[in-house]
Design a protein that fits this description.
This protein has 573 residues and is an alpha/beta fold. It has helices at residues 19-25, 77-92, 108-115, 150-158, 193-196, 209-217, 235-239, 248-257, 266-286, 301-310, 324-339, 357-363, 382-391, 413-416, 423-437, 478-489, 522-534, 545-555, 561-567; strands spanning 2-6, 9-13, 49-52, 59-60, 71-73, 138-140, 164-167, 174-177, 203-205, 222-227, 262-265, 295-296, 347-353, 368-369, 373-374, 378-381, 458-465, 468-476, 497-501. The longest helix has 21 residues, at 266-286. The relative contact order is 0.11. It binds 2 iron/2 sulfur/6 carbonyl/1 water inorganic cluster and iron/sulfur cluster.
Amino acid sequence: MVNLTIDNVKIEVAEGTTIMQAAKSKGIEIPHLCYLKDLNEIAACRVCVVEVEGKGKLITACNNVVEEDMVIFTNSPKVMLDRMRTVQMILSQHDCKCATCVRSGNCSLQKLSNDLNIQDVLYEENLEHQAWDNSFPLIRDSKKCIKCMRCIQVCDKMQSLNIWELEGTGARTTVNISGSRTIAESDCSLCGQCITHCPVGALKERDDTSKLWEAIASEDKVVVVQVAPAVRTSWGEEIGLEIKEATVNKIFDALKKIGVDYVFDTAYSADLTIMEEANEFLDRFNNNELDERPMFTSCCPGWLRFIKGQFPHLVPQLSTAKSPMQMFGSVMKTYFAEKIGKKPENIYSVAVMPCLAKKGESEMELFYEEYAGHDTDCVITTRELVRMLRAAHINSNTLEDIEPDKLFEKSSGAGVIFGATGGVMEAALRTAYYTIMGENCSPDAFEVVRAESQDTGVSEASFNLNGVELRVAAVNGLGNARKLIEEIERGEKKYDFVEVMACPGGCVGGGGQPIHDGDELAFERGKNLYFLDKKSELRYSHENEDVKSLYENYFDKPNSHKAHMLLHTDHNS
Ligand code: HC0
Ligand code: SF4
């Protein structure tokens, strides 16, 4: 152990601890911009400087480790002056238009400048604007970039994709797409992790809220909105509602209050997906298609972009089931339109998602049906939803819990846990068990595939069902997925069914979720979904009466010809 003093507080920490972490252990937060634990400890911003007694110059706290008997000051006059000058320099190279920035109020640079009482930008440089394709779901504003390098590191270390790189030297150093490509030409998975780890407004999603406002205003459009499982775990964070208060039913009320016609829960179509995917899996499993093992889940569009770009030969091993979002969209434009007496083209199908890749998924050719447009016409993220509610000055305290609209009112706890890593696998196993054994398992029989923290990013298990061994894995984060696939390809790991989610913790950690600089809330949010599942009366997708009646009235049975036409895809796009 090492003994030292920080701001007159005696501290004992393990050898090798950084000054930043040592201070944090006693509640002393050293200001920083670029630092991200284990991902970015490179002192690029130099905001975290501290004074060490006996040393002439200031040193950075994020990448220097403690030494025995060090006496450190994190807020001496010398430190404060240096920090203020550093932030002034950063502001001189930043487009300080806070009033029109999506990160205003949630920007680490803005907060730091305010905290340091900086009231003027002293030196204003001419900022170079890099061209960007603003139709792409991920938007970068080079004038806001502070070169903290977090995007580079997150994309490289967490997602193994290396989309960003540093370009130029000295004052002209900037971040750009690696390999002189445009963002659309790159292999970006659209996971959005670079956005949720950006401390400022340099990275953001394409804003699609005006498209939705237009549809709401249009007399011909019936606006039908579905809300993804993970959104209920996080939307309250931005509007000051406690997690227990911030229900999906209040989101439904808020949507109706802004003029939406019908509201539904994507957890309903997650149940529908399970019916299709669990049956498809059992077919593949029973037909002993050994070459095609494992079957991979197909609902996470970040993962789909990744597998198509990085391991295209594995695409045939994806489940052919469309994602719950796309299934719901296609049911809305067919069965639902018919039921309410509208033409498919008059249905405007919207999804509120924790995800940017869902914007890309909704636009893929593959989901285009001649008569009805795309399955999903518009995807907005959790952050965009909150912006819309703010714009319409919806008071969260006046919202009430209302039920989703008729025809798709019910959803199971199995559908709700889709939003957390392992959830799709667990939901599928509950139904696969029923199909094989003819009776229900305990609803928590497969809980070992849940993950409570990032750890290895992989949960694996094997189950014996009626003498048949079933080997499964659930992985979250694309870097972890790449590792697992390489192990499978080398023959070191063998599975029958693998769930992949691109983001840490699954959709709850999605790139469209509220941002808390430096804090990963995904696993806390995931616990909320498991809590909702536990208290749900309905915990098996195959017991969802509204799914059953959709089969009785429209699709006949899982994997029927009609189901194949509307609910499946060959991923050839
Ligand atoms: Fe997800 Fe989904 S669980 S991908 O994370 O499968 O985005 O929440 O809506 O479609 O249900 C996201 C979340 C969804 C879909 C569902 C799946
Ligand atoms: Fe990398 Fe994901 Fe950002 Fe794309 S969205 S650049 S894959 S971190």
